[in-house]
Amino acid sequence: MLLLPLAFLSALRGGDSVEVQEHVLFHVIQISSFANRSWVQNLGSGWLGELQTHGWDSAQGTIIFLHSWSRGNFSNQQLTNLELLFRFYFSGITQEIQEYSSQLQFEYPFILQADVGCELYSGATLKSFFQVAYQGSDFLSLQNMSWVPAPEGENKARRICDTINQYDGIKETVHKLIRSICPQFTWGLLDAGKKYFQRQERPEAWLSSRSIYGSSLLLLVCHVSGFYPKSIWVMWMRGEQEQLNTQQGDILPNADGTWYLHVTLDVEARDAVGLACWVRHSSLGGQDLILPWGHHPSMKLILLAVLLALMLPIALALWFKKHWRRQWLSLENPALSL
């Protein structure tokens, strides 16, 4: 089985924990798709919380830094050592699995997933993890210094754990990676990306609606987008009374790293007047953003504006035609101008 080289880790900084002020998660996700004995695709990505910070170029065997601060405070040499470690891991794990797939009872095609990382808490506490899934189900994990099969893995996972638990070098390398290097790198990311994470982006909000087919209800939608940080409060209100049947969707990421959210409210069309969408966010300086329903152009006003826009050129054309006709007639018959 694969023995990860401890030499690659010797150049990386030591230490067991990092002091942080809040809960922080950094983890690396691996997805390996084995189509047959000769074709495999390895995908890798690094995530700080819900923000992707790194990718993996499987063709070049190199780390992709998705932000200017994604290198953290590690030196080029430390990052090169990590890159070599990941390259060796992907190459070795692929070779080992393909060679022993029949003994491991892996039936092609199959997918292996790994989630590796650390969670930092205030008070310098640390939780680290290395979890592996097979075909989307929990398979095995590293607990302290032993590989432990998941109940879903049954005998297949137990046999693999019995085998790889014999290789102390693998366990020591992984243990150092998640207990020492991961928290150091995470703290460096937070420090390097301080300005990025402390920025404040004001939300933009707008309203829309649609009739609910087969009923007299109206679905009111309050869209809020472009805000950062993620924490936000959005509610349909009548005066200062919260409408408890407000439904909030998931907070979704925008391409620029900001967030989007919509909240909806089912209401009788005749009762929509007097409602408003309230938005509270740290970027607003304590001033709620309030969008009253009915203070946006109705469909009748929109249609009227469209008709005016269409009629204006026609009216101008008729005026010019009449004007120039009179001018022309006056030139031909001066008496008409008297």
TrEMBL record:
Alphabetical UniProt keywords: Glycoprotein, Membrane, Signal, Transmembrane, Transmembrane helix
Keyword Membrane on entry: yes
InterPro entries given in the database record: Ig-like_dom, Ig-like_dom_sf, Ig-like_fold, Ig_C1-set, MHC_class-I_related, MHC_I-like_Ag-recog, MHC_I-like_Ag-recog_sf, MHC_I/II-like_Ag-recog
Ig-like domain ranges (all copies): 203-283
SUPFAM superfamilies found in the cross-reference section: Immunoglobulin (SSF48726), MHC antigen-recognition domain (SSF54452)
Signal peptide coordinates: 1-17
Keyword presence, Transmembrane: yes
Transmembrane segments: 301-320
Protein name: T-cell surface glycoprotein CD1c isoform X1
UniProt organism field: Erinaceus europaeus
